[in-house]
Amino acid sequence: xxxxxxxxxxxxxxxxxxxxxxxxxxxxxxxxxxxxxxxxxxxxxxxxxxxxxxxxxxxxxxxxxxxxxxxxxxxxxxxxxxxxxxxxxxxxxxxxxxxxxxxxxxxxxxxxxxxxxxxxxxxxxxxxxxxxxxxxxxxxxxxxxxxxxxxxxxxxxxxxxxxxxxxxxxxxxxxxxxxxxxxxxxxxxxxxxxxxxxxxxxxxxxxxxxxxxxxxxxxxxxxxxxxxxxxxxxxxxxxxxxxxxxxxxxxxxxxxxxxxxxxxxxxxxxxxxxxxxxxxxxxxxxxxxxxxxxxxxxxxxxxxxxxxxxxxxxxxxxxxxxxxxxxxxxxxxxxxxxxxxxxxxxxxxxxxxxxxxxxxxxxxxxxxxxxxxxxxxxxxxxxxxxxxxxxxxxxxxxxxxxxxxxxxxxxxxxxxxxxxxxxxxxxxxxxxxxxxxxxxxxxxxxxxxxxxxxxxxxxxxxxxxxxxxxxxxxxxxxxxxxxxxxxxxxxxxxxxxxxxxxxxxxxxxxxxxxxxxxxxxxxxxxxxxxxxxxxxxxxxxxxxxxxxxxxxxxxxxxxxxxxxxxxxxxxxxxxxxxxxxxxxxxxxxxxxxxxxxxxxxxxxxxxxxxxxxxxxxxxxxxxxxxxxxxxxxxxxxxx
Length: 639
Ligand SMILES: Nc1ncnc2c1ncn2[C@@H]1O[C@H](COP(=O)(O)OP(=O)(O)OP(=O)(O)O)[C@@H](O)[C@H]1O
Description:
639 residues, alpha/beta, Rossmann fold, 2 domains, six-stranded parallel sheet, 20 helices, 44% helix, 11% strand, disordered N terminus, disordered C terminus, binds adenosine-5'-triphosphate
């Protein structure tokens, strides 16, 4: 069967004929008929529809699944987003807080530093002109070259050639800190220091076999002709660091040409108290005697201190001398009256240098410098030397070497420090009990002369073998007291701070501070009379509510630093500075003015005291002509 008019046929399907005209079917041109659709059989159309529906449904399902996933991710993100932002916010806040805190602390530190710099500047202004001679300043003379070494001294080859790393390692091993240029290597044996036989024999006789840290580094530097600031704890043998080089200067001069009438001195040591000057003089005498026994001429040292007849001292100097040991006032007296000259002097040492400046002898030192006629080698020593004194002192030095053994102002670790709370009225009675702690010799310190007298009287009544020393006694009494105590005929010596600086009594067992000194530096010097050169000693300090809290805070910090027991009443004290006092700000820990670790310079009671004293003495001076030595408590008359 054929089908006419088939869509696929070119002629099309033909309908059965009914009426030719009517039945005539118009011919269709697929190109022209937009409605035209190819015929698709029903079966195919169904499967196509089915396919279409399936794919539609798949598409929808896929879209639905994607939407669900998208929603879930969005949810998740949303959730995480919240968590993130909370964490982030808190972190951010914390960071900001920390940054603020850091910023605040830095700002606070900067503020403290600026304030302290300003205060130090004021202090420097108060200390007026630098520590140099007025004459030299007027003439515009300043020295820039170092002095030549003493007698062309050089270290032996082993030390000359010592590599830097080895020098550093040795210093580290012995806790020696140095500052300055071209510092010679520390020398570990006296025999390697190129000292004359007489001196080496003298050291042996004194039982001194090995140099202490300050001696290892200080003696070679001094023999090299260097200017030195030497800081080392009490009893560490500083006297020999300047004493031996000064003897070497004198020996060199003597070997060049015999010292005759009116010549000399070539070396000068200034000390803050008569007793200390006397002690140093004895050390010089001992070693020069030893040199004389070993074939050298006897080098002459002269002691010029207050309290002894000026005439005898002037005569001794006029006969020609190599060395002078002096207290500042008497020295100035002799210089001003032209009974002594420093024209040939080329070696100057200020022992306990900071103490002298503190005690108001700055002007005497400057006047003394005026009497030199050329450059000299200058050495400054102390166990305490706060930054301001170091800076000030450096103005007197040329290309100085600074040698530090331990922190300036730290207590000697060989001293066991005990601090006891004793009521004012119970002190005397408790003192008797306290004296039983150790066998003699015992040293007792009081803050003022009248307390010394009271304690002295009380102990005499209790039959204690006791002597006393203070600035109000005449020189004879002072000398006798020290002598009998040194010889052991007296068990106890009571004194003011006149006995606290540099005095070297044999094997003191116990130092008792009947009262806490007003300055922590004095405490360090006082307790340093025991525990000397390797021995141990005990120091007991009475404190009570009469003490200023700042000094107790200094004491507490010192005890902590030295690893000592801190009694509960001190432990309970809390500074209101938030720990800033012990931080290193601007290179300074604690107070730059007095070296106390318990406060900073802004709260320094000593600075305040000095200010008040300066103002008062300026007033006195203007109205009454004043006494320049009124501030030298305990030292009165020393000049
Ligand atoms: N290398 C050493 N070995 C052993 N003893 C020494 C040594 N050097 C010095 N001495 C002795 O140590 C004691 C203390 O010395 P010196 O008085 O010089 O100490 P110092 O550091 O000046 O103390 P201060 O700061 O109290 O004045 C003296 O009796 C001294 O003879």
